[in-house]
Design goal:
442 residues; mainly alpha; 434 Repressor (Amino-terminal Domain); Serine Threonine Protein Phosphatase 5, Tetratricopeptide repeat; 65% helix; disordered N terminus
Length: 442
């Protein structure tokens, strides 16, 4: 096969900003998380891309995980057709970009089973998008033009705002059952933005609603492991927030994209996005959250000075006085989150004892209403109990996290517990471990 012809795997890989060595490392990491070994190296990746060699079924499952493709969509018999067609691009910010970005996100969901229509977003493209937003001289404004559609009634907007707020603030345990309603609300709002005639104040309300709904839908997709869809919705929300002139909400959506990049073991992309997002974020609580996520990304890269500088900024900003209310999207952010994520930073930097103390402290501070976060915190605690040689405590925390995740319908948390199981292999006779293993395999 000609090296100049782009194989679908080459396109998808480069869309993530990975060379063959980095891609092979990610595949070996996917195997390691399952307690297994993969011998994939850059030469093997080249054989797949250039020589037309078909990866075995297990390797294809690892490839799918690295590319963010749900396991059920990885069909070895259909190689390479199940791979995402990744062009690495995003719709540029502009006065007419909001509706196309929303449509692209919704189309991605509708075409979920048709992988060739789904485009992953390269890390470099996300950093470029963040930079374009950060360097914008003024907020975006609507292009004043006559439209053929009907005038948007404020009563309709108020109804959508009220019902959307109830849906987006619903407890995770219940929100899993109303996800289609969130999608439907976002579709309705997108249609009003695209087809209706409205004053600028009404348009700003619609854009704010679309940004909020896009963010909630994106997190739902993220929790289900649908990473391509999640990124598309976050990007669409960014366009809405930018068009509406809401800097802090735009920064929030960039921060969520950075969180996803860190989750997918791409902290360099995460830090690049966050550094640009912080340049225009205003509210202290919002800046605190972004600094904390930046600290996590820097710690994952082993950058001690940058990590501690970001942690200090996050702590200072969290307590800073401000005459404006805390933005709704970060109203949940608290000392509990600061403690736990600080602990995770220290864990990445090798200070497991102090990390253990901070994570335990953060878990104790977490309010009862935040079940999904509690599940993640319990998982972090299980990891750290293993780090300090307390497998019985780790099993107890892991089991509690698993049961909680199953009850509230949080598949991301369930998967995290499953990925931790190989670390319990040497402790099968330890108290609590057999029950955890039985629950995971049930």
């Amino acid at each position: 096969m000609d090296e100049g012809i782009s194989h679908p795997l080459t396109v998808a890989r480069t869309a993530l900003g990975l060379d063959r060595v980095q891609f092979a490392n990610r595949i070996r990491g996917a195997a390691k998380r399952r307690g297994l070994h993969s011998g994939v190296d850059k030469q093997r990746v080249r054989k797949w891309e250039v020589d037309g060699v078909t990866p075995d079924n297990v390797s294809q499952s690892y490839i799918g995980e690295v590319l963010g493709v749900p396991a059920e969509d990885v069909d070895p018999a259909m190689w390479p057709d199940w791979l995402p067609a990744a062009d690495g691009g995003v719709i540029p910010l502009g006065p007419a970009s909001t509706v196309p970005a929303l449509r692209e996100a919704m189309t991605t969901t509708m075409n979920r089973s048709r992988r060739s229509f789904m485009s992953a977003i390269a890390g470099t493209s996300l950093i470029t998008l963040a930079g374009a937003w950060a360097s914008a001289d003024t907020q975006a404004h609507a292009v004043e033009q006559a439209r053929a559609g009907k005038s948007v009634d404020e009563e309709v907007v108020s109804f959508l705002e009220e019902t959307s707020e109830r849906l987006t603030t619903m407890a995770t345990e219940h929100r899993q059952h109303v996800a289609p309603l969130l999608d439907a609300h976002l579709t309705a709002v997108a249609n009003l933005i695209a087809e209706g005639r409205c004053t600028r104040p009404v348009e700003v309300r619609l854009l704010a609603l679309a940004a909020n709904l896009s963010q909630t839908v994106a997190w739902h997709r993220f929790d289900l492991g649908l990473h391509i869809e999640a990124s598309k919705y976050w990007v669409a929300g960014l366009h809405c927030a930018h068009q509406g002139g809401d800097r802090d909400m735009a920064a929030a959506l960039l921060s969520d994209l950075a969180y996803q990049a860190s989750w997918q073991d791409n902290p360099r992309t995460a830090s690049g996005i966050l550094e640009r997002a912080l340049s225009r974020t205003r509210h202290p609580a919002a800046r605190s959250l972004l600094q904390l996520r930046l600290a996590r990304a820097l710690a994952a890269q082993g950058e001690r000075k940058g990590t501690f500088r970001a942690l200090a900024a996050a702590e200072h900003l969290l307590d800073a006085a401000c005459g404006e209310p805390v933005p709704a999207w970060c109203a949940w952010f608290s000392e509990a989150d600061l403690a736990v994520d600080s602990g995770q930073c220290l864990r990445d930097l090798g200070d497991t004892r102090r990390a253990h103390e901070l994570i335990s402290e953060g878990r104790s501070l977490l309010p009862p209403s935040r079940d999904k976060t509690r599940g993640i915190f319990l998982l972090y605690q299980a990891q750290n109990y293993l780090d300090v040689g307390e497998p019985d405590q780790a099993a107890a925390a892991g089991l509690e996290s698993l049961l909680l995740a199953q009850r509230i319908g949080a598949p991301r948390c369930v998967q995290l517990v499953r990925e931790l199981i190989p670390r319990f292999e040497d402790y099968r006779e330890t108290q609590g471990v057999p029950e955890l293993l039985d629950r995971v395999t049930a």
